Structures are given as C-alpha cells and as structure tokens.
Amino acid sequence: MDFKQNIVLEDARVLLRPFNPADLEQLRAIAFDEDTWRYTVTCLTSEADLQQWAKEALAARRNASRYTFVIEDKATGQLAGSTSYGNISATDKRLEIGWTWLGKAYRGSGLNHHCKFLLLQYAFEVLHCARVELKTDVLNTRSRKAMLKLGATEEGILRSHTLMHDGRRRDTIYYSILETEWSAIQQTIFKDMLPGASH
After folding, report:
1. Are strands 94-102 and 169-178 parallel, antiparallel or unpaired?
2. Which are the contacts of 134, defined by CB distance < 8 A and separation ≥ 6?
3. For a surface tag, which of 3, 28, 80, 86 has the fewest beta carbons within 10 Å of its beta carbon?
4. Cα pseudo-dihedral 18, 19, 21, 26, rounded to 10
5. pTM
C-alpha cells in the first residue's frame, strides 16, 4: 500500500479521502460528543485532544502504520467523521479497517455501510488483501452487530487486551473477512451498491 498516494473512494452517498489538517474545522463541530468515544481507546473532549488526534493521524501516515480518511456526506458536503486502514502487513496481505467514528447525526444513517463497502472493495480488489480484520470492545453490541451484518466472521475474544481512556481494560473481539468470501458478500450484503443496481 502506497501511503504517499492520495486514495479517494466514493459512491453516490459518501466520499472518503485522506485526512488533512484543514479538515479540523469541520470535524470540531462533531467530535466532542461523549457517546462517540464510549468504547474507543481515544477520547476527544477538548481542542487539545483533537489536535493530538490529528497529529497522530498525520504521523501514522508518514510512518506507514495507519492511513486515516475523512468521511464526507455527499448529500450535504459536510464531514461526518473518520475511518482508517491500519495494522497493515504487506507480507501477509492483511490489514485492518477501524478507528472509525461518526458524528451523532450520522450514526444509524447507513453512511457507515457505504464506507465499509468502499474500504472492503479497495482492500480486496485493488490492494489484493487475503484478509481484512475488524475489532471492537466486547461490550459494544452495536458495533458487533454491524460487523456481523457486513458478513464478517466472529473469531474470538482477546481478554484484557487494551487499556481504555477511562482506565478500564478492554476485552477485544476480532472479526475477519477473507478474499475468498468477498465475492459472495458483495453479491448479497452489498448487492444494492453494485453497478446497475436499482436504487
């Protein structure tokens, strides 16, 4: 994966493009919502937190450890949140989709489903990954249901895996989709997003 390349993914509903510092102006309007960060390692509650998040996102792209996108709602032209590719292993043809957060108004809107389709499609069809991973807090039932709805397979729980921003040690549950499964998932779960599908 070429981290210097500007990867832009889009369909009729959503546009994903690389994060840049100018995006902070719009992200600031949606970032400081306690509910967004309940099950995440990161917690943005202040301008300093947001600046640190931006600094880490840019550094991670420079050192090729994570590629952070912003999510633009094409209906309004407004930024809805962020998502990333990370834990990338070119040798193993594997990456993780995660670090995803959406402003309150966009949760449950279907926007995330479009994002995941574009990210999975690019991972399997352009990057030729053999495996895409997803993970979440075992307590995050909404996220767990969403991952199963993507066609991902639940693999298991890593106990006391991650230290959270509030001091709790999180049990992390892993999911995956394999390259061999992508065609069937695309034709069923994402069939309405394929060319020629009636909307």
Report:
1. unpaired
2. 96, 97, 98, 147, 150, 152, 174, 175, 176, 177
3. 28
4. 120
5. 0.95
